[in-house]
Specification:
about 350 residues; alpha+beta; Heat Shock Protein 90; Ribosomal Protein S5, domain 2; 8-stranded mixed sheet; binds adenosine-5'-diphosphate; binds magnesium ion
Length: about 350
């Protein structure tokens, strides 16, 4: 048997990074979530080469204190929780303090940030090593540039798809985040071309129109129901805009984009009671629930969550979608005489 060896920091960080940073879109997601947590109402994303060459995120959030700039890149460094108990009171998108340390260990990162009342600071980190740190004036907020993703992990680079596919995935993820945060204006520019622009009107319906099409917006039924421990709202499409796959479905729990079999199956079963062919509905489904009765810490990319009472969630989703479809179709039928 070989002897046990404790991995050095560099090796450990690269392994940990593999869980958080799978591809350029995972970097965009983590950075944008940080900008949201910083309270920014404006988030600009620019990418080059599908994000492999460059990912730049600029926000107008609260910024990072100069003394904290380097700490932000340490593993398990977070301003969002103090103890494990806080995991059940999560109101932020981030909480594990792993994104910046992971990203910076597999790329070249420049970060510039300024808080209200402090001087701006800039740091540059390559493959996890600090190259320089300096004073740098800027407006309040944070700018982060991630270059040459996976330059030091060739095995990972090989698994990336074509640059235009990676850019497409970034567009999809950012669109969904924009839907979850209608009060924030987002932009995405890829190789100089604007792929997405939302205006932060606060109305999810406007974002659906900006992200999808007028036709889709016109063929959806809104819903909004409140129960003791949760609120459910969103839009479900009629059969005309249904699809052969689930690409037009987004589920948000406490505004976090998640995958949930329980919710998907409940919504689809309810939808199919009104459909003539077996296709997948257009769906935007927001659940706002007490953080105490969910577990958000079961997946490295936070893409899955666990509900304390799965059956209750299933019933709430099924009943809401069923009722919405029934009433929506009835209204459509009433205003369009044969
Ligand atoms: P987490 O989001 O889980 O706390 P990250 O590694 O993503 O961990 O970020 C580490 C810390 O850096 C955050 O807790 C936050 O304090 C700070 N930070 C990162 N990005 C920003 C930003 N855009 N604006 C303000 N603070 C930020
Ligand atoms: Mg984060």
């Amino acid at each position: 048997m070989a002897r046990i060896n404790v991995l050095d920091k560099d090796t450990f960080n690269k392994i940990a990074a593999g869980e958080v940073v799978e591809r350029p879109s995972s970097v965009v997601k983590e950075l944008v979530e940080n900008s949201i947590d910083a309270g920014s109402k404006e988030i600009h994303v620019e990418i080059q080469g599908g994000g492999e060459e460059l990912i730049r995120v600029l926000d107008k959030g609260e910024g990072i204190e100069p003394d904290d700039m380097l700490k932000a890149f340490m593993p398990h460094a977070t301003s969002k929780i103090m103890t494990a108990d806080d995991l059940f009171r999560i109101r932020t998108m981030g909480f594990r303090g792993e994104a910046l340390s992971s990203i910076s260990s597999v790329s070249k990162v420049l970060m510039r940030s300024r808080t209200e009342g402090s001087d701006g600071r800039e740091v540059y980190i390559e493959g996890g090593d600090l190259k320089y740190e300096k004073y740098s004036p800027m407006d309040r907020g944070t700018l982060i540039e991630v270059r040459d993703l996976f330059y030091n992990v060739p095995a990972r680079k090989k698994f990336l798809k074509t640059r235009s596919k990676e850019a497409g995935t970034i567009g999809e993820i950012l669109s969904k985040i924009a839907i979850a945060y209608p009060e924030i204006s987002f932009s995405l520019v890829s190789d100089g071309k604007t792929l997405l622009k939302t205006y932060g009107t606060g109305d999810q319906k406007d974002v659906i129109r900006q992200v999808y099409t007028k036709k889709i917006q016109e063929n959806t039924f809104p819903f909004h129901e409140e129960f003791d421990s949760l609120r459910i709202s969103g839009f479900v499409g009629n059969e005309e805009i249904s699809r052969g796959n689930r690409s037009q479905q987004s589920i948000f729990v406490n505004r976090r984009l998640v995958q949930s079999r329980t919710i998907t199956v409940a919504a689809e079963n309810a939808f199919r009671a009104f459909a003539t062919v077996s296709r997948f509905p257009f769906l935007i489904l927001n659940i706002d629930i007490l953080p105490e009765i969910i577990d958000v810490n079961i997946h490295p990319q936070k893409a899955e969550i666990k509900f304390e009472d799965d059956r209750h969630i299933f019933k709430v989703v099924f009943d809401t979608i069923h009722k919405t479809m029934a009433e929506g179709l009835k209204r459509t039928f009433d205003v369009e005489p044969e």
